[in-house]
């Protein structure tokens, strides 16, 4: 058994090539191993002290978020709160202050849970991940990354080094909301993210909706909204499309029929909040708290 | 299991502890069993209840779900680190005076979350206090007196 603290991406990639598994905060890895979901890997490489993985950089391609950026930082980072707001909404709902301090965006994405809060925002904002291995690098859209519950298309020797978001359009906004039974240490019963772009006369020119915890992976909803007004009729069609396209299961947190219904409600609320933000209105992060969605205090 | 034992140097409450721990040992186990500081509690052992909360470089972390080896080179603070000589921290005095301690099992973790909150936000609202301790469960008090104690420590 070995434990190596990597100081650079190259250090980490060398360790992965030799068979080690990466550990950042460890909150999924250590808890999962204790529950018997899998054994703790024999060889670990700590990636939480690699400086470049902790950087948030505005580039000509948009925003590059290092895989090691924590949820605690995502929820307050100015560019994310200002332009990629749904991701801040989601990060602010993850776990508790303690889990947000150690949990990273890269860890959340690569853990591949269909209930992950940050996944639906990344889908509606068109995110990709950069996967690096020794001597190679490729970018994969997040929608092609997740292949099933807890599964990704990444190889064992690949390290997610960043999550990349394209520039946001003028007059656009995004939001993420979830159904929850309590405010902290909660897993989404269902959730939805929406991204909305409006024309100068207030019509929908582009929109995307993605759903949490209603399918084996985060799923994107097919919408036909070009030129629609931001009104009740549009909200109702978003809700109907989300409920129709969900493929939920029943488990101890909710039945499939309850999930199918409520994910439509969440999609509608996310869409409405995203449209309000697109108009320039400030709705504080997270939308769940600002608009009183989800569990009460 | 000897091939899984690794050397680790932990700095807890300012004191260096050179230890030999199994790679799978969590920070909670190292603090309680190897170092012998038993103020930090094991509750759910699942990152849910916050009884094991310690500060790592000033930030609250569930020590049950953090490997001891991950803490190398970092500053770990436990509830014992709140004392100055034999004098309790204001938070400790206030939580006792306010009746915020009943069985006491959540108290060390609650204090660490509160300590971190006040270090970052010296004048929190009641809602911000609730958010600050939202990762700490208490089965006894109903929280009101704990929040009172934290508010009184501002």
Corresponding CATH superfamily of one domain in chain A: CO dehydrogenase flavoprotein, C-terminal domain
How many distinct folded domains of chain B?
2
The largest pleated sheet of chain A is described as: 5 strands, antiparallel
CATH architecture of one domain in chain A: 2-Layer Sandwich
Major protein interface = A-B, 29 and 33 residues
How would you sum up this structure, described in words?
The complex is a heterodimer of chains A (297) and B (154). In chain A, 34% of the residues lie in helices and 25% in strands. Chain A is of the alpha+beta class. Chain A has a domain at 172-290: 2-Layer Sandwich (Enolase-like, domain 1), CATH 3.30.390.50. In chain A, 54% of the residues are buried. Chain B has 154 residues and is an alpha+beta fold. In chain B, strands 2-1-5-3-4 form a five-stranded mixed β-sheet, sandwiched between helices. In chain B, a hairpin with a 2-residue loop joins β3 and β4. Chain B starts with a strand and ends with a helix. The interface between A and B is medium-sized, with 29 and 33 residues.
Gist of the model:
Chain A is α+β, with helices and mostly antiparallel strands. Chain A is built from twelve helices and 14 strands. Chain A has helices at residues 9-17, 27-34, 71-74, 78-83, 85-93, 97-102, 105-111, 119-124, 142-145, 232-245, 256-278, 287-290, and strands at residues 2-5, 21-23, 43-46, 56-59, 62-66, 128-133, 136-141, 146-148, 151-152, 159-165, 172-179, 190-198, 204-212, 219-221.
Layout of SSEs?
The complex is a heterodimer of chains A (297) and B (154).
Chain A (H helix, E strand, L loop, with lengths): L1 E4 L3 H9 L3 E3 L3 H8 L8 E4 L9 E4 L2 E5 L4 H4 L3 H6 L1 H9 L3 H6 L2 H7 L7 H6 L3 E6 L2 E6 H4 E3 L2 E2 L6 E7 L6 E8 L10 E9 L5 E9 L6 E3 L10 H14 L10 H23 L8 H4 L7
Helix pairs in contact in A: 10-11
Chain B lengths: L4 E8 L2 E8 L4 H9 L17 E4 L2 E4 L12 E3 L12 H8 L9 H14 L5 H7 L11 H9 L2
Parallel strand pairs in B: 1-5
Antiparallel strand pairs in B: 1-2, 3-4, 3-5
Helix pairs in contact in B: 2-5
């Amino acid at each position: 058994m070995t434990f190596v603290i990597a100081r650079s991406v190259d250090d980490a990639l060398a360790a992965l090539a030799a068979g080690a598994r990466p550990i950042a905060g460890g909150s999924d890895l250590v808890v999962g191993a204790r529950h018997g979901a899998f054994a703790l890997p024999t060889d670990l490489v700590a990636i939480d002290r690699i400086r470049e993985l902790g950087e948030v950089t505005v580039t000509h391609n948009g925003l590059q978020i290092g895989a090691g950026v924590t949820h605690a930082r995502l929820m307050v980072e100015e560019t994310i709160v200002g332009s990629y707001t749904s991701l801040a909404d989601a990060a602010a709902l993850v776990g508790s202050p303690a889990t947000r301090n150690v949990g990273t965006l890269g860890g959340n994405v690569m853990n591949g849970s269909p209930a992950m809060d940050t996944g639906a925002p990344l889908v509606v904002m068109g995110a990709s991940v950069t996967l690096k291995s020794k001597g190679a690098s490729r970018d994969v859209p997040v929608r092609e990354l997740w292949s099933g519950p807890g599964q990704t298309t990444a190889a064992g020797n690949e390290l997610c080094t960043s999550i990349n978001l394209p520039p946001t359009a003028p007059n656009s906004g995004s939001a993420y909301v979830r159904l929850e039974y309590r405010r902290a240490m909660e897993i989404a019963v269902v959730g939805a993210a929406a991204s909305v772009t409006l024309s100068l006369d207030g019509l929908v020119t582009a929109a995307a909706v993605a759903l949490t915890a209603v399918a084996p992976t985060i799923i994107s909803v097919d919408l036909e909204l070009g030129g629609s007004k931001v009104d009740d009729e549009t909200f109702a069609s978003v809700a109907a499309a989300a409920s129709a396209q969900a493929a939920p299961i029943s488990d101890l947190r909710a039945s499939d029929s309850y999930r199918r219904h409520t994910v439509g409600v969440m999609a509608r609320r996310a869409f409405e909040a995203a449209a309000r933000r697109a108009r320039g209105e400030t709705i504080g992060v997270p939308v769940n708290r600002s608009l009183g969605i989800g569990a009460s205090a | 299991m000897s091939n899984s034992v690794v050397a680790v140097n932990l700095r807890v409450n300012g004191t260096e502890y050179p230890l030999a721990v199994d790679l799978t040992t969590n920070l909670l186990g190292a603090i309680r069993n190897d170092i012998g500081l038993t103020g930090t509690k094991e509750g759910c052992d699942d990152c849910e209840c916050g009884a094991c909360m310690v500060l790592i470089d000033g930030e609250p972390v569930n020590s049950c779900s953090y490997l001891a080896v991950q803490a190398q080179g970092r500053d770990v603070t436990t509830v014992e680190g709140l004392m100055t000589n034999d004098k309790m921290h204001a938070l400790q005095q206030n939580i006792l005076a306010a009746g915020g301690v009943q069985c006491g099992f959540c108290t060390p973790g609650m204090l660490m979350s509160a300590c971190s909150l006040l270090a970052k936000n010296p004048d929190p609202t009641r809602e911000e206090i609730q958010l600050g301790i939202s990762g700490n469960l208490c089965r006894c008090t109903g929280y009101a007196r704990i929040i009172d104690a934290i508010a009184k420590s501002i």
